[in-house]
Amino acid sequence: MDRSIVDAMPWRPEYRASKKEPGGAIRMADYQGMRWFKCDFQVQTPDDNVNWADPETRLGDPRRPLIPPPTDVHGNNVGPNVPDESRIQEAARTYLRRCHALDLEVIGVTDHNFSQKTEPRDWFLTHLVEQNKSVARDLNRPPLYILPGFEVDVGYHVLCLFDPARKLSHVRRVNMLLTKLGLGEGHRFRNGRPEPLRMAGENVSLKKLLEVIQDEHQGIGIAAHADQNDGILSQPRNIADYQNLGLFAVEVTASPPAQPYLDILNGRNAQWSRPERQPAYVMSSDAKSLQADAAGLPVANSLGYRHTWVRMSKPSTEALRQAFLDPRSRVRVMGSRPSETQTHPRINSIAVKGAKFLADQEVRFSENLNCVIGGRGSGKSSLLEYLRFALETEPSLDNGRDTSLGRKREQLLATLTETAAELRIEFQAEGGVPDTLIYMPSKPKDQQRRLEGRDVQDLATVLRQLQAQFFGQGELSRMTGNGAGQSQVLALIDSSCGPALADLQVRERDIQARLKSLFQAQRDELRLLDEIKVATQEATELERQLKARESVQEDSVKNQAALSARRFLDEFVKVGERDVQQVADLIAFFDRKEVLVPDAGKDWPEAVWLQTAVAQANSARQAFMKELAESAQRFELALLRATGTDAAQATRNAIQAAQDRFKAACAEKGIQPDDIARLQELEEARQSKLELVDTRQRELVEVKRRADELPRVLKELHDIWHAQFQLRRDTAQAMEASVVSQTVRISTEFMADKASFAIAWQRLAPRDGRGKLARRWEELGDDLFVSWKHRQTEASPWETVEAARTDQHAIPYLYGDLAEDLQPALMKHLDSTDVRPIWESIRLSRINDGVDVELRRDDGTAAGSMSGALSEGQRNTVLLNLMLALGTGPIVIDQPEDELDSSFIYKTLVKDLRATKEKRQLIVATHNANLPVNGDAEFIYGLEARGGHGQLLAQGGLDRREVAGAVLEIMEGSEEAFKRRSDKYHF
Q: Are residues 305 and 356 located together in one domain of the fold?
């Protein structure tokens, strides 16, 4: 098989991101936790030649024909006849190759009554087991787990499976067990048809069958094709058998089963209902062929036609029993590998090296629920804190969230002082490629953290993609203490809103920036109106001063006209002179030596043409300069003639005469020359003021246009605030619905957080606390908040204040005898120079939405609310429930049970953990057995203190004996202690 095809097979993506093998794949043995195995629990083989459908793999009779012995030169036999096993071996290899092609990993071989043959070498199962490793090796695949077994008839068919067979003796034991059940070799078939199970002449009950195969021989029984006419669910007489709690699983042929059968299996049929758990239901192919259709898919009743996914550490009948006891967590029928749909971010592993109190070790996590367990001093908390301080984008020491975390960080870093101390953490963002973070605390701060194999511009950005959340011991209590629980819930809702809220917040900031500019335009409008008013009045006053000298007013006007005429004429002449000078400057600019071809140019290509062209251009330049100079002279003469004629001189004389008459009039009236200058200055000042008024009025038009946009843009901001609230409310409802235990009720209210309002209101408080406004500031704020919520006409309390400028009913406390009519004082205060910028900023600030959470008991009654009478443990339970409800990033929690209400751990937390682990990774250090056992942890990592270091005790799923033993020892105080407590509880 092509290696690239093998690399792409479904089992491999679960085991990537390791240094163990090139390309990132790791060996199966490197991960000890539970994973999904593709299983077909009912496969028939060519051992049943009567029903086997494929001629090419059907076995002959005899199955191992004898090979004639060799002969000597005289034709005499020189050895015994030797059975030829090549055909049955090749059929077994073909069978195994088809299993691998279908990605099957576990098969239950359940030929009817085991086999018609008595010789073990004739059993097809013998050769499947013997060829298993070599076929897998040829395909570069792990060997199959072959569960030997048989299908027997107890009035309906039952599949009996046993631990994976690795050698012939395992197969022999299964054959012997069937004999013990009453079907000895040679009595299992009659006329080629399998006989029902009988002992001492009587039918064998399901109860007896399960006692033998499960209790005595550690096998597992599955009621075959239970939804068919001959299955266990087809007849009411089988109800008692179905209700036997020793029946852990039934097999069905449709997914989902037909409604009557589904009602039975889900416990909705009262007649069939079992007193406790319902059995798991699985699907199998009941294979009688290896055939496939044109698309390569199995045809009906061929190998792999139906299959079941089972989550196990390592396939065994004990692993199956545990899976069937918890099918919601560990069993899926048909479809693709369940883990392939789980693309959530995850921490794949952590390797610790050089720590003081934790032995060097590597932990490979499941993408689902992981529990780290251990006694005091075993290092389970340290392991989680190492993850935290390596992966947190904002180390807790610096972000001010909790000073105790900063101290803990310092203490933890003190355990990694060795130069070689190192943490290697493999992780991957959602659907992303794995990365390895190397954290070496002994390095300089800017070199402590890096990604292996690649450089990044901003490591924090990469780590944020992981979306990991960390909660140390006591942290939940610190988060919900001192009335902070509601704000934590709001923060959770916001983080769960995702990019949608972030987009609204970006738009909010953009609009706020525009509004700050529009507020400035509003202030500019008031300023310009004031400047226009002042300048207009100043021009009027100047005009009055001028009129006070009416006796020379007429001459003054003529004088001013003469002055204007003189200024115009002088400017006109200056313009002409400037034009002449500019032409002269241009001529001077072009008046330079001719551009000549250098002596070396005679050797250039087309040198003659080049010399001619340069000469022509030089001649044209000279002609151009000459014409330009002559034109300038003509213009200058024309200008002199125009302004130097008698008529021009007469104009100048008239101007001078007007000025002389004005001076004479002033002298006649006794006005001093200084007064004459003052009159001119006053007129110029008046003209300047009038020009200022005109300029400011033009500015005012534009400023007013912008200021008029304020209400519209302000409404845009308010609409954004409402959109944010709607998103939060929808997210809160989704979060509430996602809490599987249904123990929380979340209520939200638009901008109803009184605390955040009070903080903003206090920013506006008068600095002088002695005035009547200052003395009643807090009461006024209370009245404002209540009035705004009652009116529901303004977009915010701030706009209610604005409404109070004209509406006496907006804030009742502002008016009336008791209030001493505070409205003018408030408005004056808000419009003051110092406070107005703050007021404008406040008007653009959003009050937090109100949020509260009610915790409910199993009976539906309310235990209390986050804002009310919940205990510390109940508040923490609420917060943790909501944390688990939405989001996809890993959650790492150290001993949450220490901070939770004990009555809720099993009833709610376990239920929520089970639901959450299917969509996000959970890593929990715990000493409460409810979490790993009833939470059905996919991976348990047990530590023990040994030699002054925390060292591995056991790892994997509870279906591993050593892991179950570690849980009993660490969390229950040993198996004996658990049994003693069980006895005292009268279980």
A: no
